Structures are given as structure tokens and as C-alpha cells.
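Thread: cobalt (II) ion complex, take 2
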Amino acid sequence: MKLDYARYSERFGALTINSVQHVHELDSGNAEYHRSRTVAQISERELYDMYNRLAVVVPVKNERLKLLEGVISGIPHDCLVIVVSNSSRNPVDRYKLERDTLKHHVLLTDRDVILVHQKDPELAHVFEALNYPYILDGMMVRDGKGEGMLIGLLIAKMMGKEYIGFIDSDNYMPGAVNEYVKIYAAGMLISESPYTMVRIAWRYKPKVAQGEIYFAKWGRISEYTNKYLNMLISSHTGFETDVVKTGNAGEHAMSMRLAELLDYSSGFAIEPYELVYMMEEFGGVLESRHAEAMYEGVNVLQIESRNPHLHEEKGSSHIREMLRDSLASIYFSKLCTPSLKKQILKDLRRAGAIRSKDDMQSPLLMPSIKDVDINEFARLIKVRCSTLQYFGSNISTQMEAITT
Ligand code: GDP
Ligand code: CO
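Output below.
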């Protein structure tokens, strides 16, 4: 793969946010690693080495099986796939259908796939036993994409993975999925910090309008989210910026060392909140709890995919809700100035996402998983959770080795 180095970057304390980088070749052969001043070349060999260290988490809630299966088929064979399902179990048990689909896929491919259901009652008990109640709602794990991702993160960590990437399960194009994972691996390889995040920027996000496909450059929500994330930066640096282009990137990856440090937001605010959290934590304005990351520096890469992003359209009430939650994660930040708050409220009111300030709710947060006893998590989830299923000969051996 050949891609640009970032043209410029915005520094905010120990946090570096790089401008969007473009892909020039999806496959640049096996020539030795070569760096010109402007273009990075990553050989297929290096990418494959990275895949073995990377887990890809796929959150799924009631998506069409064909889409889920297509997404999985696009993920490179050597990546561990972790599917976290929150699909309904009656009247039709969609989890079971997902399980059978994955099982069949592995029968044909013999790759490593792990599946678990978010609402497995025993999973809630595991979190209780490990003293991590933040993900619970009463006796169960809460609904939410962020919650699913956090479960996937813990499973990736327990399997000893050094990198973790996320891919939504409602993507229509397996080829795009394949590219995202390549980009994750390439981004990790060119980053110089052990604390790295790679976020995918869409080149196009096509929409069907009046019966024709229209290659829109931005999603509706991203426009607002990016604007306010950039304003959050400018309000503290004093310099206007438009560096942030991936505020709502569902497709993103992290080194485990970074992923285990972050606090996460519940539900759909999770992606913008990651940036807000990193600005708060590593921006140098507020006190940081992570001296080592402050010393090494935290690096955010934004890489533009060649493939367009085509996913399931979920309707305008979903969009309004997402917009409100995304901007709430900025609104309630300790870094958000009064004038920024005022503008956010104005935009949300105009978009019909809130009626008044009282509709704004501060996002539910799940603190860093760093102190969760990961060996105990592995042991408990294996013994207790019957929805934890794993397929593939490699992963089975690894799972057997977890002492119960
Ligand atoms: P959008 O693409 O940002 O509009 O959001 P989607 O509705 O497509 O959701 C993103 C991904 O998260 C999809 O793959 C969903 O199936 C999945 N998802 C949504 N809610 C949940 C949830 O509560 N738990 C899990 N595990 N996944 C979810
Ligand atoms: Co989607």
C-alpha cells in the first residue's frame, strides 16, 4: 500500500491530529519498505505481519445476515474477528442465525472468529464480579454500540492482540472493508508512537437521491461534529483549524496501549467522544493521569479510503438522535467554552434534534478498562457465557489453553 504522509498536523499538548492522508496504491507489491519524503510504501509482507497482531471487532444489531457475512468476508484471514451481537433473540433468534452464519463461514475458510451476545445474562455477572458496573443497566449489559465495542476490546485484549480495529456490520462492500483493515495496518506501521489511532475518512459516502446515486463527500452528521471538534481545538489554541475530518468515524483502529487507556462513551457518541477525551486527557490544558502517554505522545491519523462507504440508511430519527448525542459529547466537555455551547444548542434546535437545553444529556461514560483483571475476565467469560462461541482450529487451541 502506498499512502501520503500527513501534510500538516495540529498539536494540542501531547496529542497530534494529522491532516487527511490519501491512498495512492491499494497494493504496492512486496518491495522492501521504502520511505520517500512524501509517500510511505508498505509491503504486503509487513501488512500480513500486522494482521496477525490485529483483532477486528464487528458490532452487530439486527443487520441483514448477508451484510454481516459480506463484512466478515472482507476482513483479511489473519485478523482475529470478534463479533459482538446485540440482535434480538425473539420472536426470531437472530443471534442463533448469526452464529450459524459465522460457523458456516469458518467451515469454508478455517479462520478465527469469536462471537458473544451483549445480553448474555452471565456477561453482566462477569462485569459485576470484576467490579466494572459502568457497562450495566440493572441486571444486564446496557444497549449501545459503545458497550458492544468495549466488550470486543476486552476480548481482543484477553487474546493478547496488540491492535484493535472496528468495522460496522452494515457495510454493503466487502472490498471497502478489506481496504479499511489494510489502512489500519498501514497507519499503525507508519506511526511513530505506541499510542496511535487510525480513523478512516470517506472519500465518498454515496446516497441514493431521486433514483440516482449521488457521491456525497460528507455524511450529514459529520459536518456538524467535525465543525465543533475543530472549534474545540481552536478555542484553546487561538488558531482556526479544519484538521478534524473524522469525528464520527465508526471505522477506526487503535493500538491496544491507547485503547486500554481511554474512557468511552455509551452508544453512538463513542467516536466523537474518543477525540474529546483525548483532547481533555492529553491536550495539556487539564491534568493528565497518563504520564507515559504524555511523554511518548498520542498520534491520530486520518486516512482517506479509496472505496466509497455504502451502508444501510437508518432513517432521520436515528440521524437526529446521533447528532444530538455526538454534539452532547462536545457540549459537556470541560474544554467547551460558553460561546461554543450556545452555538451547539442553536444548531441542534435548528436541526430539530432538541427543543430546549433540557433535552441535552451528558453522555454516560465507561472508564478505562486498564484495571480490569484480564485473566479473570478470560476465565469467567469462558466458563460462564454460553453465547461465547469460537470457530476455527487456531482459536480453539488458544481458548482451550485458558485455565478455568
Ligand atoms: P451509523 O452507521 O453510524 O448510522 O450507525 P449504525 O446504526 O449503522 O450502527 C453502527 C454499527 O453498530 C452497526 O453495525 C450496528 O449493527 C451496530 N450496533 C448498533 N447498536 C448496537 C448495539 O447496541 N450493540 C452492538 N453490539 N452493536 C450495535
Ligand atoms: Co451504518
